[in-house]
Write a structure and sequence with these properties.
Blueprint: H1 20-48, H2 57-70, H3 76-101, H4 107-128, H5 137-160, H6 169-176
Length: 177
């Protein structure tokens, strides 16, 4: 039996990323998919982890400011989220620079990194059960994995999907200031 190397209408290509039409569709739909992921992770973390925004770090800045003004104690995860987001942004940009130095396209590795961080976030949240204490170590770690995943995602439209719309104008400017 001879295996044909010609593309078939009935069978998908083994590596569809070589197909320019596939890449065009991916670039068109990926920003929308990433937006849904960010919104979902943000809602899950806000409701499940005691008011932590993972995708909208500016929301955490507002929560911190409200706690300072009211004289209340800010949750540890909210206080950690801003510096963790900024550090992961810098590390992600350094990682991309390393990829570029050895001529590797950064989109797939960044999507894989985001997937792994989101998987860790999911595993820790599921393992903690429905009544998670937002101040518990596993909840804080889960939140920081979510924040890290969203920081990686924040770099995608700017570095790997040039020309794609981004709504992260304020968040992106936080570390650059």
């Amino acid at each position: 039996m001879r295996i044909s190397t010609e593309p078939s209408i009935l069978l998908p290509r083994l590596y569809p990323s070589d197909d320019p039409a596939y890449l065009a569709r991916l670039e068109r739909w990926l920003p929308s998919l990433l937006s849904v992921i960010a919104g979902s992770v943000d809602v899950i973390s806000f409701l499940g982890l005691g008011g932590l925004f993972t995708a909208h770090i500016t929301g955490n800045l507002i929560i911190l400011a409200a706690h300072v003004v009211s004289g209340g104690n800010a949750p540890l995860a909210v206080m950690l989220s801003v510096p963790v987001f900024m550090v992961v942004l810098v590390l992600t940009r350094l990682l991309v620079a390393g990829f570029e130095a050895i001529n590797i396209v950064s989109l797939r590795p960044l999507l894989l990194l985001q997937f792994l961080l989101l998987t860790g976030f999911l595993v820790l949240c599921v393992a903690a059960g429905p009544h998670i204490d937002p101040n518990a170590a596993n909840a804080i770690l889960a939140g920081m994995l979510g924040v890290s995943a969203m920081a990686v995602q924040n770099t995608l439209p700017q570095i790997s999907l040039t020309g794609a719309p981004s709504t992260a104008v304020m968040t992106t400017n936080v570390p650059a200031s």
